[in-house]
Amino acid sequence: MKSLVTGANGFVGSAVVRCLLAAGHEVRGLVRSGSDRRNLDTLPVEIAEGDLRDSASLKQAVTGCDNLFHVAADYRLWIPDPHIMYDTNVKGTEALILAAAETGMKRIIYTSSVATLGLKRDGTPANEETSSSLETMTGHYKRSKFLAEHAVKKLTDEHKLPLVIVNPSTPIGPRDIRPTPTGRIVLDTLCGRMPAYSDVGLNVVHVDDVAQGHILAYKHGKPGERYILGGENMTLLQILQTIDGITGKKTKRLYLPLKLMLPVAWMMEKIAMITDIEPRATVDSIRMAKTRMFYSSEKAMRELGYQFRPAIEAIKDAVIWYQENGYCNPA
Are 110 and 166 in contact (CB under 8 A)? Predict the structure, then answer.
């Protein structure tokens, strides 16, 4: 049994690779030329170089594989040229799913995001049925993932594909090399760069639990259905205090209302346009934070047998990994 994993060298992708190998799968990883492959260095993975914007490379990658785990995505909250994100996340996903369909894949797992789901104004956890629309999507990442999931559902219905959608929430843990925008919260706190907080709410899950959720979706998921792979709902302050507890620090932080952060984020974006360095805060990220992004994984738990560990374990594993890999000298 050979499975193709796109974005196999990434944060979530490499965790999925590890779970597949543990389950006895042969794994082929689709990675971009010149990409950082440290997450795959010690793993017995066949490498296929390609790009979601190169349809020929996608057809070559799917050939000879029984299953597809499409994890790769352009996950940035700021990008100088948004067209690249749409070409990757939407058009690239369509081309890949069609290529997989042509080979008669036995199973396709598409990694979407909770970003495509609606949110409840009262802050209670949303689920797979919480309504959403393109108009409610804030920022290019959320819009591109919403459009991609819509395209995937359409292809699944039209071609009767054995495709299951999973919607991870906010993964945290080891091997976040880049790091992702979520990992940066942990790293900035660890390095003393989070002197303030706002009324943000996130659903925190260990990246390895998300990866295991992919395997459960492969085994038990119903084609055409989607499943939230989440964890524990926490405010930003709770996350920061958890990190402080792990490191033994006692940090006093200032509460900063979101409306005061908007002009700061706007200025950071203007500077980023000059330096081409991704800003630490973006206007879209501030706007997204106005509603607490809380979710329920009850459906995945009921239908897939999905489980998740306490959020503190995810945060602790991330802290230890960053420290051991020299991202920040612990004080």
Answer: yes
- Cα–Cα distance measured from residue 317 to residue 95, given in angstroms and rounded to the nearest whole number: 36
Task: Confirm if 107 and 67 have CB atoms less than 8 A apart.
Answer: yes
pLDDT on residue 200: 87
- Using alpha carbons, select from 301, 291, 266, 318 the residue that is nearest to residue 120: 291
| Vertex 115: Cα angle to 111 and 102 (nearest 5) | 30
The helix/strand count (H/E) of the chain reads as 12, 12
Cβ 47 vs Cβ 31: under 8 Å: yes
- Give all domains of the chain, ordered by start, each with its CATH number: 2-173+206-230+294-309 (3.40.50.720)
Q: How many residues does the structure list for the chain?
A: 331
- Note the pLDDT of residue 331: 44
**CA 215 and chain centroid, separation:** 16
Whole-structure pTM value:
0.92
What residues have CB less than 8 Å from 254, skipping those under 6 apart? 195, 196, 197
Low-confidence ranges of the chain (pLDDT < 50): 330-331
**What's the confidence (pLDDT) of residue 281?**
67
